[in-house]
Amino acid sequence: MGIRLKFNLGLLAVFIAAFIGAAFFLDRQYQASARDNVIQNARIMLSAANAVRRYTSEQVAPAVTRGDPAWISPIIIPSYAAQTNFRAVRADHPDYTYKEAALNPTNPADRAQDWEADFINAFRNNATLTVLTGERDTPTGRALTLALPITVRDEACLVCHSTPDRAPPRMVEVYGAANGFGWRLGETIGAQVVSVPMALPLAGARANLVSALGMLLAVFLGIMLMVNLLLQAFVIGPVTRMSRTATAVSLGQSTETDDFPTTGRDEMSELGRAFNRMRRSLDQAVKMLGA
Predict the structure, then answer these.
(1) Distance, CA of 129 to CA of 148 (rounded, Å)
(2) pTM surpassing 0.85?
(3) Is 221 found in the same domain as 180?
(4) How many domains does the structure of the chain reveal?
(5) pLDDT of the chain along its 291 residues, tens only?
(6) End-to-end alpha carbon distance in the chain
(7) Which of 62, 90, 166, 241 is deepest in the core (most CB within 10 A)?
(8) Of the residues 198, 217, 242, the one at which a domain ends
(9) 61 and 81 fall within a common domain
């Protein structure tokens, strides 16, 4: 096995180890970056939903109910406004969902599914939690969910949700007296739940990983080529010429060969000068024996 092959095998082994390590590290980094981007998108969606809620409660509701404070309609309910607004968004982005899920909602359509109830119960069991994230598989692929608790902070909420007799008659007429009652001040009754698809960000992460590994492979091949050229020029080439000269000397053809080139101050030049001195000494010794 020649020097070049041994050197290349050693370099290849180092590269394979580094390549596997880089692939593992970059994959985790790109996956984490993709997940952070998805979470950021979910936060933006929640901010937009809360902006609609605030606009509805602070501007729409007072304007609509000015003539009759007892009048009630879905358009003045912040939850209804936010979810209705998001349904329009889903027309262009069907894989994105926003829901204000509750364990005991006024509108049965807002009742929490099992996985949504897990978020709500986590908030109910730990009052210090302000946000939760999770991942789940959906028919369209993996999705990341960001949830915020919905807690009764205002006594005004209890006008509609404490007991049916206190609730506006129109509300009881539309939704009945069995749902959305019994809420208490300070109680977490639901959660704002946003689900964002991860398929596209994860595909982007994989594409970035492939590109990075491709660049790493290209750099390695370039280094291998350059190292082999330098190895040929400064090590293998001189050693081959020195071996050829040594063979000629051993066959008694010393006078027919030129001295080994010794330009430079590197190790190979020093070895060449030492070889030339040894050769000349050997020639003189042979001549002395012949005389």
Answers:
(1) 9
(2) no
(3) no
(4) 2
(5) 677 888 888 899 999 999 999 999 999 999 999 999 999 999 999 999 999 989 988 888 777 776 565 566 777 888 889 998 998 888 888 889 999 999 999 888 899 999 999 999 999 999 899 999 999 998 888 899 999 999 998 887 787 888 888 887 878 877 888 888 889 999 999 999 999 999 889 999 999 999 999 999 999 999 999 988 888 877 777 777 777 777 776 666 655 555 666 666 666 667 777 777 777 777 676 667 665
(6) 43
(7) 241
(8) 198
(9) yes
